[in-house]
Amino acid sequence: xxxxxxxxxxxxxxxxxxxxxxxxxxxxxxxxxxxxxxxxxxxxxxxxxxxxxxxxxxxxxxxxxxxxxxxxxxxxxxxxxxxxxxxxxxxxxxxxxxxxxxxxxxxxxxxxxxxxxxxxxxxxxxxxxxxxxxxxxxxxxxxxxxxxxxxxxxxxxxxxxxxxxxxxxxxxxxxxxxxxxxxxxxxxxxxxxxxxxxxxxxxxxxxxxxxxxxxxxxxxxxxxxxxxxxxxxxxxxxxxxxxxxxxxxxxxxxxxxxxxxxxxxxxxxxxx
Length: 272
Ligand SMILES: [Zn+2]
Description:
Helices cover 51% and strands 19% of the residues. By secondary structure, it is an alpha+beta fold. Zinc ion (ZN) binds next to helix 3.
């Protein structure tokens, strides 16, 4: 059996919300009647439309909004990095200065050297940021902070906290989808998850997810961020998958899908 595409689900949900589902193709309606998975997705999207999350928006407009959102997310991520660098500087200076009154001069020189090196590294990484307009402001501000006070420190910490909180905010749709696989180990479709439903890892550590699937299955592993954007997709072995979590900190969801596009599992990954 063939599941509805994302587009068909969106159209179906829109028709449901507008009360025009009789216009939907009979074969699609038959499928949704039989398939819990698609029925759930349609219901979730329809509920989102009813809540006014994207009321009146066509499918393509919803997608372009998603793309805009993801652009601003990457801008925000760049900002967090720069603000983080600035906060580090302020912290570094305020802890070093009072802490070194009795230290011999040559040690202070060493401190100076290491700070210079640090500056070079930071400027190098800041130069890699593509968003120039936002890059200028926090970078410039943090350099002017010769005499640091607690206030900018706190402000920067708050901005950083907010951005981090945003990256861990659950996606309503994927949350609901993944919840259906929580605690279900052996499934009728020849797939058994061996790892925990919610996995956590440090950024850049290797994450191992272990499952058992029929040898005949061709599995695809798809990783989504909490904005439901696909960040990675890989054909994976029938016994599990290991990969380096070189992604931004945040909440992620993954799907394991077979060659017939059956969703075998949907789980969560927290990158700390
Ligand atoms: Zn289906």
